[in-house]
Design a protein that fits this description.
Number of helices: 7
Keywords: Leucine-rich repeat, Repeat, Signal
Low-confidence stretches: 1-15, 258-290, 304-309, 321-343
Bound molecules: 2-acetamido-2-deoxy-beta-D-glucopyranose
Pfam families: LRR_1, LRR_8, PAN_1
CATH topology of one domain: Hepatocyte Growth Factor
Largest sheet: 9 strands, parallel
InterPro entries: Leu-rich_rpt (IPR001611), Leu-rich_rpt_typical-subtyp (IPR003591), LRR_dom_sf (IPR032675), Pan_app (IPR003609), SLRP (IPR050333)
Mean pLDDT: 76
CATH class of one domain: Alpha Beta
Helix content: 10-25%
Protein name: Apple domain-containing protein
Distance between the termini: 79 Å
Structural class: alpha/beta
Number of strands: 15
Order of helices and strands: HEEEEHEEEHEEEHEHHHEEEE
Strand order of the largest sheet: 1-2-3-4-5-6-7-8-9
């Protein structure tokens, strides 16, 4: 009877947000006597160590226990339908059991910054709704594999972890990505975003130990196209002579010099052979930038023995036309309407 009265009240008031707010209250236990109409449970900045159970709350949408002393991810079984936002940053959580993640079928935001996570379960449960994932200041050393969970992800924060490598394949798992914070990690390079098929992504790579060699050349080549912004934040730790140079003061040719590995050393010889040609053509790119031209350049630069590719303006295709680096001559030029070469 009591429940029916409340239900009527709830319908009349259109279940306007009912906030239960005991944040900053020094409480040490998770309260279990909260009104069942609660939609926002605000218990951040307390000293709660355990969430033993959570009663069914048919309207609970936001669960905020940011900055507490939890060591375990709570079992949200009783509120999986309605729960959309979880804030559990600044706790002591080491892992999220996959069953407990998979049941969160209406989750849009998961904030887990400042915990001790090393992996995140790649489960399909929240995949249709999850668009923001905050994993900053955890213990990730590998970029998380998110082939299931990442389908709708737009905003991912992995700042201040220990990630050493991001591959294009990782990004291909995140087709909706718009913002990716990878500042304060251990990345020495970053995959060529010209080859990423999704939206343009706002990537932060500040405070990473970047090796400024040809793998990063696309950033220069694609400048002014908004493919990788915030380049003023980039810092090179290698090669030594670029260590204290601002990215904006580094020329494309700097990125081809002083390589450490032999294969690239060889490439730099080829480049020296046709240096004038390369310079001319880089000027063309600057004047006539289009994403497909840049992709064409990237295809070439990602080859171990960078041969000459041509961009056919009429068919918008990229073709290997063959080059003899010793004689500085390129075959097949007469068949092309317009061409742009790299290397
Ligand atoms: C779900 O709610 C029931 C009934 O209040 C409770 O006994 C149970 O412990 C809850 N389960 C969890 C996982 O919180
Ligand atoms: C979560 O709670 C449900 C219901 O109380 C229980 O069946 C399930 O085993 C719990 N899951 C975990 C991982 O503890
Ligand atoms: C899922 O969340 C949305 C709000 O983001 C809400 O409108 C909807 O009712 C929720 N789904 C269920 C089954 O409660
Ligand atoms: C980075 O994370 C560590 C803990 O992992 C934390 O102590 C430090 O304050 C964080 N730094 C920043 C700038 O967030
Ligand atoms: C980069 O900046 C340009 C100009 O401000 C903007 O149009 C573009 O969308 C940005 N790109 C990304 C990936 O954020």
């Amino acid at each position: 009877m009591h429940a029916n009265v409340l239900m009527v009240f709830c319908l009349i008031r259109a279940c306007s947000a009912k906030t239960f707010d005991l944040s900053n209250s020094g409480i040490t236990y998770f309260p279990n006597s909260v009104s069942w109409v609660v939609s926002y449970m605000k218990l951040d900045h307390n000293l709660i160590r355990h969430v033993d159970y959570i009663k069914p709350y048919p309207y609970l949408a936001i669960f905020n226990l940011h900055d507490n002393l939890l060591t375990q991810f709570p079992n949200f079984t009783n509120i999986t339908d309605t729960l959309t936002e979880i804030y559990l940053g600044k706790n002591w959580i080491r892992y999220i059991p996959s069953q407990l993640m998979d049941i969160l079928t209406n989750l849009t935001i998961l904030e887990m910054s400042n915990n001790q996570l090393t992996i995140i379960p790649d489960v399909p449960g929240p995949a249709h709704t999850l668009y923001r994932l905050d994993l900053a200041s955890n213990d990730f050393s590998d970029f998380p594999a998110l082939s299931r969970l990442g389908r709708r992800l737009e905003d991912m924060n992995l700042a201040n972890n220990s990630i050493t490598e991001v591959r294009l394949g990782h990004l291909e798992q995140l087709p909706s990505l718009k913002s990716l914070d990878l500042s304060l990690n251990k990345l020495s390079s970053f995959p060529n975003l010209c080859l990423y098929a999704g939206n343009s992504v706002d990537v932060s790579l500040s405070s990473n130990p970047l090796i400024c060699d040809r793998k990063m050349a696309y950033v220069k080549l694609a400048e002014n196209q908004g493919i990788l912004n915030r380049t003023d934040e980039l810092t090179c730790v290698q090669p030594p002579h670029l260590q204290n140079t601002a990215w904006t003061d580094i020329a494309v040719s700097d990125l081809y010099d002083h390589f450490s590995d032999n294969r690239i050393e060889l490439l730099s010889c080829h480049i020296t052979d046709i240096a004038n040609m390369r310079c001319t053509l880089l000027t063309v790119i600057t004047e006539l930038q289009t994403p497909s031209m840049v992709r064409c350049a990237m295809m070439c630069l990602s080859q171990p023995n960078c041969l000459v590719y041509a961009f056919l303006a009429d068919t918008s295709t990229c073709t290997l036309i063959g080059a003899d680096h010793n004689s500085d001559e390129v075959d097949g030029l007469e068949h092309l309407n317009r061409m742009f070469m790299f290397c």
